[in-house]
TrEMBL record, chains A, B:
Domain FAD/NAD(P)-binding: 11-328
Record-given protein name: NAD(P)/FAD-dependent oxidoreductase
Gene3D superfamilies: 3.50.50.100
Keyword set, alphabetical order: FAD, Flavoprotein, Oxidoreductase
InterPro entries, per database record: FAD/NAD-bd_sf, FAD/NAD-binding_dom, NADH-Q_oxidoreductase
GO molecular function (one): NAD(P)H dehydrogenase (quinone) activity
Alphabetical GO biological process terms: aerobic electron transport chain
Amino acid sequence: MDVITLATKPTILILGGGYGGMVTATKIAKEFGHNDANVTLVSKHNYHYQTTWLHEPAAGTMHADRTRMPIANVINESKINFIQDEVQEIHREDNKVTLKEKGQVDYDYLVTALGSVPETFGVGGVFEHAFSKWTVNGAREIKDHIEYLFAKYNNEPEPRDDYLTFIVAGAGFTGMEFIGELSERIPRLCQEYDVPKNKVKMYVIEAAPTALPGFDPELVEYAMNLLENRGVEFKINQPISEVTAEGVTLKDGEEIKSQTVVWATGVRGNPVIEQSGFENMRGRVKVEKDLRAPGEDNIFIIGDCSLMINEETERPFPPTAQIAMQQAETVATNLKALIKGESLQEFKPDIKGTVASLGGKEAIGIVGNKKLYGTSANFMKKMIDNRYLWILGGAGLVLKRGKNPF
Amino acid sequence: MDVITLATKPTILILGGGYGGMVTATKIAKEFGHNDANVTLVSKHNYHYQTTWLHEPAAGTMHADRTRMPIANVINESKINFIQDEVQEIHREDNKVTLKEKGQVDYDYLVTALGSVPETFGVGGVFEHAFSKWTVNGAREIKDHIEYLFAKYNNEPEPRDDYLTFIVAGAGFTGMEFIGELSERIPRLCQEYDVPKNKVKMYVIEAAPTALPGFDPELVEYAMNLLENRGVEFKINQPISEVTAEGVTLKDGEEIKSQTVVWATGVRGNPVIEQSGFENMRGRVKVEKDLRAPGEDNIFIIGDCSLMINEETERPFPPTAQIAMQQAETVATNLKALIKGESLQEFKPDIKGTVASLGGKEAIGIVGNKKLYGTSANFMKKMIDNRYLWILGGAGLVLKRGKNPF
């Protein structure tokens, strides 16, 4: 009897070890019994990392290891199997997924939480010449590249200003948070490497008519003033036409020479979505209200690969960790309902607030209708980061890995 | 009367803030009265650094700032003036020196202690493609370059083995001490950047028939075995014919691909020597026994710009900090004698011993006739480093900046 019961346990496959995949796995481990399902999580790395913290190690204001944790330390291994591998394609008709190293794996239910890749918007040279990976590896590369340029500066026969010119493409959250950290660190880097501070140039270049599009204009102004006081120059409403080995060329013809172009203009869904034939917009699938892919009974898509329209603004919700985590909780509930033959929940995003850190003790944010500046926003940002750790690993993980707001 | 006394004080100009220049200045400050001479030290940087420590920051096992100290903190500013500038030429007939920024300065007595630059021995591509500067700036560049390659490694679509291949050209003291530090750090770098240790290749390439030519063969073997156990591969008796953007080409045609070639084959005297028309061999002037340049009454040359033949071996003494410092003490004494019209001392080197560190707690050395290995050699090495600090700044500097041998 036992053998048959085991054999008929449905198989749940979770693709992706980011916010969506990890919270799905954690919630399933909490709420499912051992005999409810075989659950497997597939992730490219054997560690989970917090994408929303990566602007700090990228600028060198936090060690990269503080943004990641071994997946084995977080998931309940008695309930969740883990496979370290890279997803190549989802075969919907066959209920199979092809992995790069380990071949094919079957599923009865699939949770696709594969995250995103940088969006170039057709600008040439991004992958060749800009830093665009918001991953642990990518962040370390940006940090070490910047330090290397500072180290090289005093070894050149003629001063190379492009070594000390830093361009951030995109004044969205990622770009603003990164330049916030970098501008905060520049004075220390100058001291460390004997480089005159007035030689350093920092640009944030944004194609849209404002920094942080869609965010409260008063807060945007606060952030821009603060960053300008640290030496950042904004070029707003100025699209980039090309990234080259020398720097960037703007649509209006201006060239800015720089050895460091950090690409942060936005993201598109993981290419596996397009590869697997899902109807999509820039790699994102417009999911049903129960978070399943249209026409698919057993495939959920969440996080940056999913697209949902905000009915109030009639625009898509931005791809955020907050929404991915909320979707993950709904998916865990819906998986249980699906297995038991019960009816599925509709997902309703509950935007609790948005906070952007700006380096040091500075931040801006909206919580409810309240605007936050400086230390109060900074406090809130740290609380949000810690709350995530709590969801993932309880108070123990907060104590071990959390951010002290004081 | 006082005014005339002041006006007739002779002017001593010391060129270079390395071991020779700093010890000359320190000794003069101790032994000369305020009315004996106007003394000025010229140095390119406003800090003095210990060249013989640079293999550590270059490999990233010590912070670069630990190898340097502000010159103003060390010299007695009531007795020694300091000019931060770069020496361009010595005009012997006019008793003048041209500085890059501040124009010409006069002297009555000149101490030339301008140190050395890398020697390429005619091998092409060294300055374009290899790291060759044993300076604070140069060490920081090597360290940050290596870390940057580790950071980049996991971001490449195809693994680039040349990112993890490190070539040291030259198995003299500098090359061996550097590979000692680097081989010691590699396991930590691999862990830090998620790089498999077996991907890292380290080569030491030496044109001579042995590593550490002239050193005790038993100690050389100890060092090579130890480094080989850490993964270093030696290519002895194999001259390099060219350094390229891809790596090195050996005389026998073999190519080794590497993004990091560290050039440590030896040095030649500062080009200012040749520029100023001194008779020289590879930028080194064969000085008289009293350390003056041949035919010059008022010009002393010490350190790596000076050449002295060891009468026992009939070969030149190697350019070492030990000899530069001993010469500096003699020069200070001879300057005083010269001003007073007394006869000058002959310089006699007193080689107290030679120790090479090999990373971690490992070292080799000769003190007197005694061979030292491992921790005892490591202890001696640290004592030598601390003794130098003592000469420069007394017990206070040892306490502040010294190396704890335990």
